[in-house]
Design brief:
Blueprint: E1 2-9, E2 19-26, E3 31-35, H1 42-49, E4 57-62, E5 65-66, H2 72-77, E6 80-83, H3 95-102, H4 110-123, H5 130-133, H6 142-155, E7 166-170, H7 178-192, E8 203-207, H8 211-217, E9 220-225, E10 228-233, H9 240-248
Parallel strand pairs: 3-8, 3-9, 6-7, 7-8
Antiparallel strand pairs: 1-2, 1-4, 4-5, 9-10
Helix pairs in contact: 3-6, 4-6, 6-7
Length: about 250
């Protein structure tokens, strides 16, 4: 679904490279965790995939098509949704308004917008409550805000789709209580199982500092350190000593 080859990037022409030859492959119907210490380049990688940061070298292929350095709105239309680090909701708007903004690609089709909201509520029934939907987003708890972000990410798709095919999540557990983190991760597992009308399954790329939780729901993982992939594999086959060595560079 997504293939990255020899990707390099920095935040300006004079900056030291943040990403140094990244190679990875994201398959359909999987959750892929990207873990690593702070400053290793995880968020930068997601920004490169979504066109928010220019790639200086390398290729990003989505469903066989080169998308590197394309405008972000074009990449979104291809079926990629991005939930950045931090709770980027519109605080003065209600929960429903925040969700509807996610459906901006179909905003002229009110019927389809309502149908997509119904599908989102099937995954997030806790949001299908008038008291919640009418509440200003600024008054939500951290966990509720994160659920709204996840739900809104599913609204971002073209008319012929009912959800994005690839969803990128950056630190979804940041600042949440342990019990809330578990709930958020349960919803992430549900997202992976969603399919479009053409029966294509979704894929999720998960960046999170909560290594234990990220690995617990992932089908594959990459360890990113100092801008390079230093260890990868399936969580069921993980070697703890090798993981620690890669993560802490010891």
């Amino acid at each position: 679904m997504l293939e990255i080859k020899e990707l390099e990037a920095s935040y300006s022409d004079k900056d030291i490279k943040v990403l140094k030859g990244i190679n990875l492959n994201i398959k359909p119907n999987t959750i892929t965790a990207i873990i690593g210490p702070n400053g290793s380049g995880k968020s930068t990688l997601l920004k490169c995939i979504t066109g928010l940061l220019k790639i200086s070298r390398g290729k990003v292929k989505y469903k066989g098509e080169n998308i590197e350095n394309l405008p972000t709105y074009f990449i979104v239309k291809k079926g990629i949704s991005y939930v950045p680090q931090g709770r980027h909701i519109f605080p003065s708007m209600t929960v429903k308004e925040n969700l509807e903004i996610g459906g901006y690609l179909i905003r002229s089709n009110k019927k389809l917008l309502e149908e997509r909201l119904k599908k989102v509520f099937e995954i997030f029934p806790v949001l299908n409550n008038e008291n919640i939907l009418s509440k200003k987003s600024t008054f939500l708890s951290g966990g509720e805000q994160q659920l709204v972000l996840l739900a809104r990410s599913l609204m971002i798709a073209r008319e012929e789709m009912n959800k994005p095919d690839l969803i990128l999540l950056d630190e979804p557990s940041l600042g949440l209580q342990p019990t809330t983190i578990k709930k958020v991760y349960d919803y992430i597992k549900k997202i992976k199982e969603l399919k479009n009308p053409n029966d294509e399954p979704s894929a999720v790329v998960l960046v999170d500092q909560n290594v234990t939780m990220a690995l617990s729901i992932s089908d594959y993982f990459y360890v990113l350190n100092d801008g390079k992939i230093v260890y990868e594999g399936e969580p069921k086959n993980i070697n703890i000593n090798e993981l620690k060595k890669a993560y802490f560079q010891i």
